[in-house]
Specification:
Blueprint (H helix, E strand, L loop, with lengths): L7 H6 L7 E6 L3 E5 L5 E13 L4 E9 L2 E10 L4 E12 L5 E10 L1 E12 L30
Antiparallel strand pairs: 1-8, 2-7, 3-6, 3-8, 4-5, 4-7
Length: about 150
C-alpha cells in the first residue's frame, strides 16, 4: 500500500481556528466530554484529511451529541485525490453539566491522514433592544446591551 503524506494545503486546512482548544489529533477521532462553570455556547469542530484509494474515495466527518448527528462529506473523488472535510456544531453547554460527544471521520476507499477535533467558547454579542418607553410614555433612546464576559 502506498504511504501518502500531508501536503502544505492539508496542513493549512488542519490549522486550529483562532481561539480554539485542541481536543484530539490523530486519525481515529474521539469520544469525550466538556464541561463549563457557566452557561456557554461552544463550537465543536472536526476536520479530517485523506487520500482517495480508488475513483470512489469518500471522506466523512461526524459529530454525535445525544442521539443527533451532524455530518460533512467530501467525495467521491478520483484515485489519489486529496479529500478534506470539516463539520462543526454550536451548542449550549449548561453550567456544571457534562456534554458528552463523539467526533470522528469515516473513510471509504480512502486512507486517513489526520483528524483534529477542537472546541471554542463563543462570546456573547451585544444585543440592541428596541427603544423603551420612558416613565412619561415617550420612547427613550437608551440602548440595552448585554455585557461581554471574558474567558
Amino acid at each position: 500500500m502506498a504511504h501518502f503524506k500531508l501536503n502544505e494545503a492539508d496542513e493549512k486546512f488542519l490549522n486550529l481556528p483562532q481561539g480554539s482548544t485542541l481536543i484530539f489529533a490523530g486519525t481515529s477521532g474521539t469520544e469525550t466530554w466538556i464541561e463549563r462553570d457557566r452557561d456557554t455556547v461552544v463550537r465543536i469542530a472536526v476536520k479530517a484529511v485523506a487520500t482517495a484509494l480508488s475513483d470512489a474515495g469518500v471522506l466523512e466527518a461526524c459529530i454525535e451529541i445525544g442521539g443527533a448527528s451532524a455530518k460533512g462529506l467530501d467525495g467521491p473523488s478520483p484515485i489519489e485525490a486529496q479529500l478534506r472535510v470539516s463539520q462543526s456544531v454550536q451548542i449550549l453547554v449548561k453550567a456544571g453539566q457534562r456534554l458528552n460527544f463523539k467526533a470522528y471521520p469515516t473513510a471509504r476507499d480512502a486512507q486517513l491522514l489526520r483528524t483534529i477535533v477542537c472546541t471554542s467558547d463563543l462570546q456573547p454579542e451585544h444585543v440592541e433592544a428596541q427603544p423603551r418607553p420612558s416613565a412619561n410614555g415617550e420612547a427613550s433612546d437608551q440602548k440595552e446591551t448585554r455585557p461581554q464576559t471574558a474567558h
